[in-house]
Design goal:
It contains 14 helices and two strands. It has a two-stranded antiparallel sheet with strand order 1-2. It starts with a helix and ends in a 31-residue tail after the last helix.
């Protein structure tokens, strides 16, 4: 098959790669909606969808049909051109982001475009997602929708900087902007020492910090709980898509879930070894029937392992929604600007220090110096935060104290004899 594909014209190869990515993505989105509803029901001690189809698997299809036949209401005072264009703009980045994601080791099939600026492309396309939200809020002629759009713009700017610093640390350590090269580098020996274990960036100290920052930022980028302030239903009715109904609302819905899946794929490529099954170099154990079978499975079942990691990322998204309450807006801004961004900059410097020392002195020396530098930078960060916040009025701190309830004596009934 690979030889057949490489013998085809360039445009046909590109079209096949696009269809291999976009087709499964469109098919998987209804399954993701079912998985979220089912998992939330388990976490909240409910039943969830179980009527339409086996285990309720056809419920998203029924919901899609319902949305398709619902009345499409367009308010009279909207900016019609922008109003109709906004859902398409919101959906576009979710599909365009996958253009540089490798879901297997066969480069003839994936990614769609193995460009030299893979990480920069991801940052550029992800920043376009806010345009759909802002334009939807602006064009709806609704103050609640406008507030939701403005919130989304401020939120994306705040967290995109920290996400960029997290990815910059990976670029600095790997020496490449290509996601394919990052995956290959993670197949090397752990810390340059152990040939049997792969060097997934999540297993390095700077990589773990960058992974935490990146994970928080992609939750904010996709407007998911606890960062779903652009559509806070208790404040803004439905936020930026208040005035949307029928299939236009469904397009916003589809774009959100597709973006969640694609960002999970980016996380898997950058920090979890991409399409590799486990962080184990099977070839280091010698050639035998078991290692040969595992190597074959790691190569030819790579799309399954990659999708499994994406599904794990989706589960984390859902888990956060079921667990954490929505942040206040001041907490949202404070987390992005005062915590994640300084931490990302410090981790970027430590990633450079780690790369230099592990190359010159070895991984053991790099661990010791990295830990010392991390403690020093954290002490400086805490000291600066205390100096900045000193003397400023802070929000009132409220506490709740639980006490044992005392039984209240019931009043005597009328006509009852009063004890002497």
């Amino acid at each position: 098959m690979t030889e057949w594909l490489t013998s085809q014209p360039g445009w046909l190869q590109a079209l096949i790669r696009v269809l291999l990515f976009v087709g499964p993505l469109l098919i998987i989105v209804p399954g993701l909606i079912w998985w979220e509803r089912r998992l939330l029901s388990w976490m909240q001690d409910r039943i969830g969808p179980n009527r339409v189809g086996p285990f309720g698997l056809l419920q998203p299809i029924a919901d899609g049909i319902k949305l398709f036949f619902k009345e499409d209401i367009t308010p009279s005072a909207v900016d019609r051109a922008i109003y109709f264009l906004a859902p398409a703009i919101a959906l576009f980045p979710a599909f365009a982001l996958g253009g540089t994601i490798p879901w297997g080791p066969l480069e003839a099939w994936t990614p769609i475009a193995n460009v030299d600026i893979g990480v920069l492309y991801i940052l550029a396309i992800s920043s376009l997602g806010v345009y759909g939200v802002v334009l939807a809020g602006y064009s709806s002629n609704n103050k609640y929708s406008l507030l939701g759009g403005l919130r989304s713009a401020a939120q994306l700017i705040s967290y995109e900087l920290a996400m960029g610093m997290a990815l910059a640390a990976v670029v600095l350590a790997s020496g490449s902007l290509k996601l394919t090269e990052m995956v290959k580098i993670q197949e090397g020996p752990l810390w340059g020492i152990s040939d049997h274990i792969q060097n997934w960036f999540l297993f390095t100290p700077w990589g773990f910090v960058a992974a935490v920052i990146f994970a928080i930022c992609i939750v904010a980028e996709t407007n998911r709980a606890p960062f779903d302030l652009p559509e806070a239903e208790n404040e803004l009715i439905a936020g930026y898509h208040t005035e949307y109904s029928s299939m236009k609302f469904a397009v916003f819905f589809m774009g959100e879930y597709a973006a969640m899946l694609v960002f999970s794929g980016v996380f898997a490529c950058v920090f979890l070894g991409g399409y590799n099954m486990l962080p184990i170099n099977w070839s280091a154990f010698g050639e035998n029937s078991v290692t040969n079978a595992l190597t074959w499975a790691n190569t030819y079942l790579a799309p399954a392992w990659f999708f499994g990691k994406c599904a794990f990322g989706m589960t984390i998204f859902i888990w956060l929604r079921a667990t954490l309450p929505r942040l206040r807006y001041d907490q949202l801004m404070s987390l992005g600007w005062k915590s994640l961004l300084p931490l990302g900059v410090a981790n970027f410097m430590l990633a450079g220090l780690w790369s230099l020392l592990s190359t010159v002195k070895g991984a053991g020396y790099a661990w010791v110096v990295w830990a010392g530098a991390a403690v020093l930078l954290m002490a400086i960060f805490i000291s600066v935060r205390r100096v900045i916040s000193k003397g400023k009025n802070t929000l009132e701190t409220r506490t709740i104290r639980l006490v044992d309830a005392e039984p209240v004596a019931s009043p005597p009934s009328e006509g009852a004899a009063t004890p002497a």
